[in-house]
Amino acid sequence: QVQLVESGGGLVQPGGSLRLSCTASASGNIFNLVAMGWYRQAPGKQRELVATATSGGSRDYGTSVKGRFTISRDNAMNAVYLQMNSLKPEDTAVYYCNAQGWTTPTPSGRFDSWGQGTQVTVSS
Fold first, then answer.
1. Rounded distance, CA 53 to CA 107, Å?
2. Counting beta carbons within 10 angstroms of the beta carbon of residue 58, is it exposed (0 to 12), middle (13 to 18) or buried (19 or more)?
């Protein structure tokens, strides 16, 4: 229904920076892209919130990334970005983009989509 394409992962040294990008697309229009965000999952751990951004301007961050990561959106491009600074080895994980909203203003138009994930590795 709604596809997400992520980019920007890779290997970085501790203290370095990376920027992740995610763009949402659909076969038709996206009526309302209510929220876009990032989650991550490290080996042996549960998936956890990194950051979310709503179309209304609200931002929410996971406790471990506050002050280091910044989420932003380009509503015209249906895109969300995650600027990650001061990266630590414990930030190593697969990062998943998530998008929620409606393709049409009806209950059947509701979607909650996930990207395929992009690996972020923080290591010296």
1. 22
2. exposed
